[in-house]
Amino acid sequence: MNELERTALNEILRTVTYIAEKLDELDARFSQSEEVKAKASSAS
After folding, report:
1. Which three-class secondary structure state does DSSP give residue 27?
2. Full DSSP string of 20-44
3. CB atoms near residue 5 (< 10 Å)
């Protein structure tokens, strides 16, 4: 594998990792939102 291929794969991996981290953040926010809605509906 030459240097250009290695660099390209590293960039792809970095991008995929970044996207996965952002999806995890969104999932955590969504889960918190769902918990708040559930608590609010059970309180009323």
Report:
1. helix
2. HHHHHHHHHHHHHHHHHHHHHHHH-
3. 9
Q: Enter the pTM of the model.
A: 0.74
CA atoms within 13 Å, Cβ hemisphere of 21: 6
As given in the structure block, the two tokens for residue 41 are 């509906």
Interior angle at CA 29, CA 24 and CA 35, nearest 5: 125
44 residues of the chain, pLDDT tens digit each: 899 999 999 999 999 999 999 999 999 999 988 887 787 788 76
